[in-house]
Amino acid sequence: MAGVVGNQELRPVVFALRTLAVATCYYAAGRLGLLCRLTVEGAVFTPVYPSTGVALACLLVLGLGCWPGITLGAFFLVLSVGSPGPDAVGILVGQTAGPVCAYLTLRRVGFRTDLSRLRDGLALVFLGAFGAMLVSSTVGVVSLMLAGKLDPTHFWPTWLAWWVGDAMGVLIITPVLLVLFEARRLPSLSRWKEVLALVAVAAVLVPLATHSSLSALFLVYPLLIWAALRFRLAGSMLCALFASVTATVAATEGIGAFTRLSPVEVMVKLQLFNGSLALTALLLSAVITEQYHTRLSVEEACEELAEALEHLTAHDSPAGRAPPGAAEPPRERGTR
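Structure for Membrane protein, as requested:
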């Protein structure tokens, strides 16, 4: 009985600590996202809003009960940007409702956090990112417009920038956090050489592709394929995250592949690159992981079949039979 009472007393403390931890992670991710901002039609937005990815990852790992931490983190983030007005309530509702809708939708379709199936990757892309983030962007932009902080003529560009930023946060940040949560062991010592080679190539190739005036962003994709083939989701998503951050920095500074472009063109080019990068990394690694697990299942089935055949052969072996040519024991005659 004392143990039960002790557990009940600890529940509020655990809930408070969990809420504070989620709020801290949300706020820190939001501040990092605000370091790279673009201005389109007078509206300031982040090309990749990491807080939505952090929020969805926390919901998938910790459960629906961590939503107050998301709201609290969003409140402190709004407070750090400027004095909150009536629109802050709508923004908080939207930034909480978007990840919650994504969580509920993904759970309903049987989403697995290890992203070991192609259907999990497709669900995260189309339901978690593109679908659920419509809620956060619509509620947030409508709140700004009702508060008089947004000209109605700028509604659609602002809404599009908000939606894409939230969706990119889910596509790029959530898989990385899920990979870190699901990680059980580090690569073996024999594979560290290839890991270091991949890191070295990425450190040279990605900045060259994003900062070169030749617009050589396509050079990132062979690196992404290499990472997905050899290290599956962990390798491909970390490469995608590094490439996305590097490209976002180049876009905000207007250099490299984003030189001499209008703000709208910069936004479109950057988001098309980020979106195609995240989709390629996520779906390709999901297909490779699914095929890997299928091969393991086939190998296990073959081993079980071989063991069953050996067992049957052992039972049918002539060890307990009389050798050929030996006389059979006489049979008893029946009596009338």
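The two ends are 80 Å apart (CA to CA).
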